[in-house]
Structures are given as structure tokens and as C-alpha cells.
Design goal:
mainly beta, globular
């Protein structure tokens, strides 16, 4: 799902980033994982606010050709799921992280090429998970920034977007 231009904003000092998505289409499948479980349209609204603390952090592993410089940050998420067919709305309490890391100096991003430019691509972002009380599986909100997207194509074979949002249900591998 592409992020609308108005859905991502940076504060004037570029230390706070806000991602706001409304009416993201999802499905409600209350009898999942039953093979014949019916689905009904639902919608997701959420707002994710990431604020850099100004405390620098650096990770480096020259053996794996990996270098990352950035700042620690705090994040807060609020989400609402609406299922119009049954007139149901679920709103989370504000969820907050203790600390996460924001890549690069938000005010002055720095990138360093190691090896061939086309051989190694990176992205960075944040993922927030919250468990749905009835389903007992995590809903995952994933936001990514792709600063090295030159020459990278998405699943539709179009040039990759700078900002990407993904919604997923279930845990990772």
C-alpha cells in the first residue's frame, strides 16, 4: 500500500516523523484459520509518531560489510479497526516504545557505499505489533524508508517508492 503524500510528515526540526493512514482496506475473518471462513471488508486507521532523542548510536560490522549510524528514538502508535458490516470498532490504547533507533542523522543523512553499489541494498523502518484479543495473533504495522532504492523494482516491476507501509497478520518466521 503506497503512503499518500499527506500521510507522512516531518517536523520543522526534522526530529519528529508522523505516519498517518486512514481507511486502509483490510479484511475481517473471525473464523480463521478455518478453510471455509468467510471474509468481510474492514478498515484500519493508525498514526505512528517517531521522535528522535538526539542520542547518537552506531553499529558496525566490517566482516559483514555493515555500517549504521543514527539516533535513538521513541515511537507511539494508535490504531483503530472498523468492521462496518457488524458495526464494530476497536481502538487501541496508545502504544509506546521505550527506545528504537532512527537511521542516519535525521537532519543530515549520511550514506557510505561499501563494495559495489548494486550489490547491497538496505532499507530501514519501524514495525509495531499488537495482539488482537479475539484472534490471539499479532497485527503488524510496518513502515520502511528505502534510501538506496535506485534500480530497485517493487512487486509490480515499477521503481520502488521511497516510503512503504505494510500491514500483516501473524508472526514472522
Amino acid at each position: 500500500m503506497p503512503v499518500p503524500d499527506a500521510g507522512f510528515t516531518l517536523s520543522g526540526d526534522e526530529k519528529t516523523a508522523t505516519l498517518k493512514v486512514t481507511n486502509a482496506p483490510i479484511i475481517d475473518q473471525p473464523r480463521w484459520p478455518a478453510m471455509d471462513a468467510e471474509t468481510t471488508p474492514a478498515f484500519l486507521d493508525f498514526q505512528l509518531v517517531i521522535c528522535a532523542t538526539g542520542e547518537p548510536v552506531k553499529y558496525e560490522n566490517r566482516y559483514q560489510q555493515y555500517r549504521f549510524e543514527g539516533f535513538k528514538a521513541n515511537a507511539q502508535l494508535e490504531a483503530t479497526v472498523r468492521v462496518p458490516s457488524i458495526d464494530f470498532t476497536f481502538k487501541t490504547d496508545p502504544l509506546a516504545t521505550s527506545i528504537l533507533t532512527v537511521p542516519g542523522a535525521v537532519t543530515t543523512p549520511q550514506f557510505e557505499t561499501i563494495g559495489r553499489q548494486s550489490a547491497f541494498k538496505t532499507s530501514t523502518g519501524a514495525e509495531v505489533r499488537f495482539f488482537m484479543p479475539v484472534l490471539n495473533v499479532p497485527f503488524r504495522l510496518i513502515f520502511a524508508m528505502n534510501p538506496q532504492r535506485g534500480g530497485v523494482l517493487d512487486n509490480d516491476l515499477k521503481p520502488a517508492n521511497k516510503y512503504v507501509f505494510r500491514f500483516a497478520v501473524g508472526s514472522t518466521f
